[in-house]
Specification:
heterodimer, A: 449 residues, alpha/beta, Ubiquitin-like (UB roll), OB fold (Dihydrolipoamide Acetyltransferase, E2P), Rossmann fold, seven-stranded mixed β-sheet, six-stranded mixed β-sheet, 10 helices, B: 407 residues, mainly alpha, 2 domains, 17 helices, globular, translocase (chain B)
Chain lengths: 449, 407
Amino acid sequence: MSQDIRIKKGLDIKLKGAAEKVTENASSSSVYTLKPEDFHSIIPKLSVKVGEKVKAGETVFYNKANEDMKFPSPVSGELVDIIRGEKRKILAIKIEADSNQEFVDFGKKDPKAMNAEDLKSHLLASGCWPFIKQRPYDVIANPANTPKAIFVSAYASAPLAADYDYVLAGKENELQAAITALSKLTSGSVHVSVGKNSNSPLAGLNNCTLHKVSGPHPSGNVGTQIAKIDPVNKGEVVWTVTPQDLVIIGELLLTGKFNAERTIALAGSGVTAPKYFKTKIGASISSIVDGNLNEGNNRIISGNVLTGKTTNKKGNLAYYDNIITVIPEGNDYELFGWTMPVFNKISTSRAITFSWLFPNKKYDLNTNTNGEHRAFVVTGNYEEVFPLDIYPMQILKACMYKDLDEMEQLGMYEVAPEDFALTEFVCVSKQPHQEIIRKGLDLMLKEIG
Amino acid sequence: MGLKEKLHNIKGKVDGTNWQTMFGAVHTLFYTPNETTHSGGHLRAADDLKRIMVNVVLPLIPILIFGMFNAGFQHNAAINGFPQGMGFFSPEFWNFDNLAIGAMKLLPLVIVSYVVGLGIEIFFATINKHEVEEGYFVTGMLVPLIIPIDTPLWMLTVAIIFGVVIGKEIFGGTGMNILNPALTIRAFLFFAYPTWMSGDKVWVTGAVERTNEIAAGANLDAISGETILGSLAQGNELAYSVSDMFFGFIPGSVGETSTLLILLGGLYLIYTKVASWRIIVSSVIGALVMGLIFNGVVDAGWITESSKFYTLMSTAYWQHLLIGGLAFGIVFMATDPVTASQTNKGKWIYGFLIGFISVMIRVFNPAYPEGVMLAILLMNVFSPTIDHYVVQGNVKRRLKRLKAKTA
């Protein structure tokens, strides 16, 4: 168990449109949206009806399988609409914010003086529990477990990612309170990873083990760090929390309020002046991007380009995201695209592609797949960008033919879809790796639990 | 863009009909589709399967052109005598006369290979309603390069139908096959028509024809059409200089003779990361090791000159890479990612055994003194087993980690 983590396998996708370190207040969104699909595998039960008033932090819905697990409103206001899909499945819950924000008072707490059970029930009651996720399966943590360790990655290596050092600056107190609380919930320690050359506000915290990370993406993925520090074995559970969610947990403990405020990056080559915005979970996309986009056919993504979800101006900032990326759509044909020399796209091969000549060039990539979907043919290229001690193609195939034993043996408990974002990027056969892994995890969750 | 709109209009008309597959194949040749990402990550790297495949075909083109010249050159050399002291750019080799003879023989093979093979691919893609896949793009180029130049076209047609249908399509097409399709085609030819695939007549164009004419009573000199390996297996002395062998001025299958061009092709494939350097390097090591073992056996005096294996065993170990199809097989056939080992560790084992077994079969099989085809096909069959044990190593490491925890 080394303190520092250095990986060599990986790939930094250098894109145009990194956010400048300037923060603006987003124009206040009038309607905030919660989407149950942000919370994978949760079946929601509503506790509020259309037309009723809620305060910020008040439960809007809870988990049908575990009624203690509550999902709070990010703002105070009136529940104005519930959008349902097939079989009346709840797709989105819309809350119109009041001009005067009221918070539920959960009471100030001192995490040092609390035991694990009190903390759990406090986090569950206040709606902060969903910020804690678990591996295996990459879903919201099961409060009945005691994890062997908790991991926080404060090093964002994904393309265009919001810089944690910048957005979390000055939040040391909140972070410390949250880390202290988390340290009570695990039998092991809380592992916090920061960039090697950063001045992260998380670097000086107590009650945790600090790791310094270097190397290309996915060095900042929490999955990579788990694998290097303390990999998940069968029967073990680890939890993960993102740093910006630690701030919300910390603020809850210090002030008693559930404050869904978050500094997010608006980045990508489709943005006129990429920068940071202060907004809240569930805010409408238009409240952030209006007036900031380039002309043309753009794709708006809540999240980063590797793991985010496609949305649009009518959509909303997803629950766990701290970045909105805008890149051009690539829905056009390209003449002899399969054989012409390529200078303006990234490639890990040198097959008449020349990105290897310009390691520091920043690219303006679009969403074209650059080829058609095929069976797996090329081998060995995933391993170049995949730092885990797992055979990526073999585990993907095991997921596709649904062999649970093999999936388990090959390391399925250790992975999340985001760990396969880079293999998906370089895949010559254009296979949907993250979707394959997600379906595989869902199958295991259902069959093995 | 006139072409773009025209193709788009046709696309509107053929979508949903049986012509959709075929049109799609043509359409994607001109234009990369307008498909965008719809799940997972929003970006994809620039490489697709077409690009990878075209980068395998690229280094084969100089080899094909060289093969044309060499076909004519061997024909003339067999009749007029072999010129001595040729450099790589000798006009005795690179002349129109040689090219004309070679092109007349070789182009029909290339055309038949692509027309028949792609025809079958499109047929299966249409009935299975999927897109035409690129695998045959490479296979179609490899096949004419690994057969004797005088192979009759009907024979080639039968072999391709067998190879593509039984070797690939019944497993589900590109990416699903167990055996290298080009070698399956060649193996079919070899076992179905052995007299056309080996012996001392087939490797120089015109030799068989001339033999038949002599048998019919014509007063002509016979043309010898023997490969170096065939000659060595008969116990004859090596009749070619090392530079002739390295440059490729020797009889043999069309594409296998020029070690120089194969070496350059191999370097290109490694540099572009299209082929696995692990397989190429380990195959070369395997062949050298087996060659050294045989040389050692000869040096130790365990075998006498009267043995029928003596000449091939005593061939200097490194010369095995210059003669026969070993170099071509290693660079272009063993590296087929679908049929090779898929793990990096497995690739070392797989490649080493290909080189090792190739030279072994070559020496111990005087009836057909070439082992690359059989060695690669054999290792194709064993590559999933190699991978299985490599992956099991990973699985065991994981279990051990768990045990160390719970103990």
